[in-house]
Structures are given as C-alpha cells and as structure tokens.
C-alpha cells in the first residue's frame, strides 16, 4: 500500500544551523543561506505531492530544529512527544508540542530516563520498527510500545549500526510492502516478508528517501534512485547537501501527519 499523508510540519534552518550536531567530515562547511534555499525547494516539491505544509518559523535557539521529524510522532490523530537524545535539542520537544496540540486529539509525553527520536521510528503498516541507537534507548522503546500497542500497532526493536545516526538514516519505507536501505540492515529478520531494495555500494544518503504515494524525494542522484524509477516511482532528485553535512536527509525535514 502506498503511503499518503495529509499534512507536514516543516521549519526552515536559521543562521544557527551552522552549529548543527554532526559527525560529517564537512560539518564546518555548513552554509545556512544555501540550506534555506534547499529547504525552500524541498517544501515546494512536498507541497506539489499533495501535502499541506504547516510552516513553523526558524528557531535560532536550536540549530537542529529544522529536523522536525525527531521531536514527536503522530499516530491515528494522537501525538507522542519524545525526549531527544542530544541534550542541546531537549527544548525542541516543548516547541513541537505547542505546534501539534491544535492538530491532534491527544498528546502523550515521554518521561526521563526514556529517550526517543522520530528518526528512529519506521512505520510499515501496523508495525513500528524502532532503532536502538545513541538517540533512542530501551526505556524510549518501552514508552513507544505503551503508546502504540493500544492503537493497534506492534513495536519491534532494530539495532542501528555503529556510526549511523538513526534507523531512518539506514533504511526507509517506500510502501507498506517495500523498503530500501543498507544491505546489512535489510538482512534483519524484522524485514522478512517485505520486498527489499538494497542500495548496494551507494553512499549512506541514498538510503534516506521520502515516499508519498508514487512520488519520492531523494537527496542527490544515485543508481539506487534509478531503481526506484524502474519500480514506477517519480523521483525528485534534490540537492540537500547542506543537510547531508548535518547527517540528515529528506525524511528528517518534515513531521508527517496521516490521512
């Protein structure tokens, strides 16, 4: 089943984006002005895919706040406000709660010591795959389970490879039956029964794509994206290089709200 969403919360990067958390070798070269232009192009394409954009103002207090996927998760009209694993991002959760409150029927919150970031949560049908990573801990996985199981979702933990930030950095869903990503991650038994499109020797940014209906937003231009076109997807190849320098990709830049 293809993936459709009614709205997306987005936030442009501010000047402080140059201080974003990153282990990328070109992290010192981050250009906030260029990043804003890339973000505008991303938003234009996302809106063209039939998604209503809810645009939040830039937040100079929080360099990573343009990554709206991370502070919260929305399932069936309910929001779970996470606790971000990076201390410098902690206050982003409160701002996201304020933005989401008018849009959802209920809001739940994680409590310490749990940490959970949206980039570690991959939804495939009524299953939630959650990455155990430097940003999401066991208590966060337990909290997600307590939130999601009453809504009819099962939760399955997946180890995130060393050196990879989030689960969605390494694997993303194109439909509820089709996933793409790193070969080593797709070998995990939680992906059994799904069709898998490994990226092969393509670099890590090829793994993180945002699929809505039969359209895909991809960062850069890789052979792995040609394979998506051969499967009938229209691929929008965008230059998101400034966000790659902050260890991010297309899914990181929007918090999607279901139909």
- Name the strands of the widest sheet in spatial order: 2-1-15
The CATH class turns out to be Alpha Beta
Distance between the termini: 13 Å
The CATH superfamily is known as: L-arginine/glycine Amidinotransferase, Chain A
Biggest sheet features: 3 strands, mixed
Strand portion, in percent? 25-35%
The counted number of beta strands is 15
**Rough outline:** globular
How many domains make up the 3D coordinates? 1
Q: What value does the Rg take, in angstroms? A: 17 Å
Structural class category = alpha/beta
Poorly predicted runs of 5 or more residues: none
Helix content: 10-25%
Reconstruct the topology from this structure:
Layout: E1 5-10, H1 32-48, E2 52-55, E3 72-75, E4 78-81, H2 92-100, E5 106-109, E6 121-124, E7 127-132, H3 138-148, E8 154-159, H4 167-170, E9 171-173, E10 178-181, H5 183-186, E11 195-198, E12 209-212, E13 215-219, H6 223-230, E14 234-238, H7 241-244, E15 255-258
Structure description:
By secondary structure, the chain is an alpha/beta fold. It has a single domain, classed as L-arginine/glycine Amidinotransferase, Chain A, CATH 3.75.10. The chain is 22% helix and 26% strand. The protein has 7 helices and 15 strands. The protein has a 3-stranded mixed beta sheet with strand order 2-1-15, with helices on one face. It is globular and about 45 Å long. The mean pLDDT is 96.
At a glance:
With 259 residues, the chain is an alpha/beta fold. It has helices at residues 32-48, 92-100, 138-148, 167-170, 183-186, 223-230, 241-244; strands at residues 5-10, 52-55, 72-75, 78-81, 106-109, 121-124, 127-132, 154-159, 171-173, 178-181, 195-198, 209-212, 215-219, 234-238, 255-258.
